Amino acid sequence: AALCILLAALVLQPTLRLLRALPSGKIALSIVAVHISFGLFLILRPMLFMPEGGHLAHHLAMRDTLFWWVTVAGSLVFCMLQGGLMLVSSVQDTIQQLHQERNQDPLTGLLNRRGFDEATTQATRRRQASRSHTVVVCDLDHFKHVNDRWGHAQGDRVLQAFATQLRTSTR
Questions:
Q1: How far is it, in rounded angstroms, from Cα 78 to Cα 42?
Q2: Other CB atoms closer than 10 Å to residue 125's CB: what's the count?
Q3: How many angstroms separate the CA atoms of 142 and 140, rounded?
Q4: Summary mean pLDDT of the chain
Q5: Angle of helix 113-125 relative to helix 66-103, nearest 10 degrees?
Q6: Which residues are 111's β-sheet partners?
Q7: CA 7, CA 45: separation in Å to the nearest integer?
Q8: With 70 as the cut, is the pLDDT of residue 112 above it?
Q9: Single pTM value for the model
Q10: DSSP of 20-58, one letter per residue?
Q11: Phi and psi dihedrals of 135, rounded to 5?
Q12: Cα 102 to Cα 18: distance, rounded to the nearest angstrom
């Protein structure tokens, strides 16, 4: 029993560290729960399903035992759960990345028109009476002159610097 507790602690400790490092969310928690469950399954399986008094080395015909079938079925279930959760997590990450690419200007990281429209719609929906909102419209005078005189690469740096200044100066 003490050995099982020690093994459980060895399995759970890295998993709990992993849980703290992961972003919060149902999918991430589900993946960690499957890891913990599989670790406990591996630890408890021999005690619960191994033929009485036997060791694995003494059983040449393991395919005919309950231990073998529980091992195969349990491993299959956990692998399918893990694969499914990882697939869902990957799809969720891809959708989030595409949503960000769709709503942000790649050069400045600021919202484009579609992103701005979505943000204002969401802000209007959750607006509280005590909070006010401000919209800032900016125009960089003679910006074409910057591009013509110093080139587009320098113009890009000016836009990035302006976007950084705008982000740090607003909420």
A1: 11
A2: 7
A3: 6
A4: 77
A5: 110
A6: 104
A7: 13
A8: yes
A9: 0.54
A10: HHSPPSHHHHHHHHHHHHHHHHHHHHHHHHSPTT--GGG
A11: -110, 130
A12: 31
